[in-house]
Design brief:
The protein has a single domain, classed as TIM Barrel (Alpha-Beta Barrel), CATH 3.20.20.140. α3 runs parallel beside α4 and α4 packs parallel to α5. With about 375 residues, it is an alpha/beta fold. Bound molecules: uracil and zinc ion. Belongs to the metallo-dependent hydrolases superfamily. It holds the Pfam family Amidohydro_2.
């Protein structure tokens, strides 16, 4: 098998044992509620607003379970990240200490994973920054420095709150600068969704916050980054968006038009809003070939907005081009099948979606499966 034909999962979570212990010791959300049924542990994870919980067990923290899941689905390599809500709920000093410990823990988790080849491990990781209110920028830069020196950590996972004012906070500029300089990939992941009053009174389980709230949160955070000129100031920043960028691809022309018609921002940005979408990376967790194809087109379309481009706005896009910035992911251990099955439907759906995108040939599919991840995380030459 060539390196390019590898299956690489770039969206896969873990609650490291140290973090799971913290959740277990808590009495308010986020927490793990421990109980037992018929003498067996029957723990539940409560992390979301109005959360009634979901079953939680070793698949959330045990590396052997992660490897078993990988083997079962033919996944060669995984880049794991801590699951939400990270350190968001902790006071600054505790968050700082824990971030440093968890980054070391994650390095060890990866180091102890099996090897894929003499120079490749099966697991790499995204570290964490203590992004909480009242943290000093120096502490954030220290965490970036720590992560950049840990050989199996290839990026960081980040929520949308920043240090309390969101990611368009100018105070974060030194953080973006350091992330750009170190080349760490920034994985932007939602947690809060949108105002839960929007969900009404019916009990719809986790459907509305996960299917809509999560992607809208990512959409808003990324749009605010664009509007704040973060990609103008830090053009080499590598930002990976969860859940295929949420609704941003669908709303990007509307965003561009709203910007053009607004005197407050009309001349603020260096590019048309659609240009920025071609500079981002997107996981391929959209569950359908039409959605993946559409995201791919939107990425490819960004070429039209390159400075000096003479491509007319009605020229057809080269869908294959967009596939270069899309990467397979599973969201494991979330979305397990309701009835036990050999393979998880959520994974099968995303693999089948990649396979069925019209206009993607084998080379594009191989890239989305793993080739793009190996180059984004600089694992290709190993
Ligand atoms: N639910 C979560 O809380 N996080 C995920 O990443 C996926 C589902
Ligand atoms: Zn996720």
């Amino acid at each position: 098998m060539t390196l390019a034909a590898r299956l690489v999962d770039i969206h896969s979570h873990v609650y490291l044992p140290r973090y799971a212990a913290l959740l277990r010791a808590r009495t308010t959300v986020p927490r793990i509620l421990t109980s037992s049924r018929d003498g067996k542990p029957d723990d539940r994870l409560l992390i979301l607003d109005r959360d009634t919980g979901r079953p939680v067990g070793p698949q959330y923290w045990d590396r052997d379970e992660k490897i078993k899941f990988m083997d079962r689905h033919g996944i060669d390599l995984t880049v794991v990240s801590s699951a939400n809500p990270w350190l968001d709920f902790l006071p600054a000093s505790e968050a700082q200490t824990l971030a440093s410990q968890l980054n070391e823990d994650l390095e060890q988790y990866c180091a102890d994973s099996p090897s894929l080849s003499p120079s490749l491990k099966r697991i790499y990781g995204f570290g964490m920054l203590p992004l909480v209110p009242e943290i000093s920028i120096a502490a954030l830069l220290e965490a970036i420095d720590q992560i950049s020196k840990l050989s199996y950590l290839k990026g960081i996972i980040m929520g949308t709150r920043g240090i309390g004012k969101g990611l368009d906070d100018e105070a974060l500029d030194p953080v973006w600068a350091a992330l750009e300089k170190t080349g760490l990939v920034v994985f932007l992941h939602p947690h809060y969704g949108v105002n839960s009053e929007e969900w009404g009174e019916k009990n719809n389980g986790h459907v509305l916050p996960l299917a809509l709230g999560f992607p809208f949160e990512t959409t808003i955070a990324t749009t605010r980054l664009i509007l704040a000129g973060v990609f103008d100031r830090f053009p080499s920043l590598r930002l990976l968006l969860a859940h295929s960028g949420g609704a941003l691809p669908q709303l990007s022309s509307r965003l561009a038009s709203c910007i053009d018609h607004d005197p407050v921002v009309a001349s603020r940005l260096e590019h048309d809003a659609r240009w920025y979408l071609g500079k981002l990376y997107y996981d391929a967790i959209a569950y359908g070939p039409e959605e993946l194809g559409f995201v791919s087109d939107v990425i490819a379309r960004s070429q039209r907005y390159e400075p000096g481009s003479s491509i007319p706005t009605n020229a057809p896009v080269d869908r294959a081009l967009g596939s270069k910035r899309m990467l397979f992911g599973t969201d494991h251990p979330f979305f397990p099948p309701l009835q036990s099955t050999e393979k998880w439907q959520s994974v099968v759906d995303n693999l089948q979606a990649i396979d069925a995108v019209s206009g993607w040939g084998q080379a594009e599919k191989d890239n989305v499966h793993g080739g793009n991840a190996l180059s984004l995380f600089n694992l290709i030459q190993l």
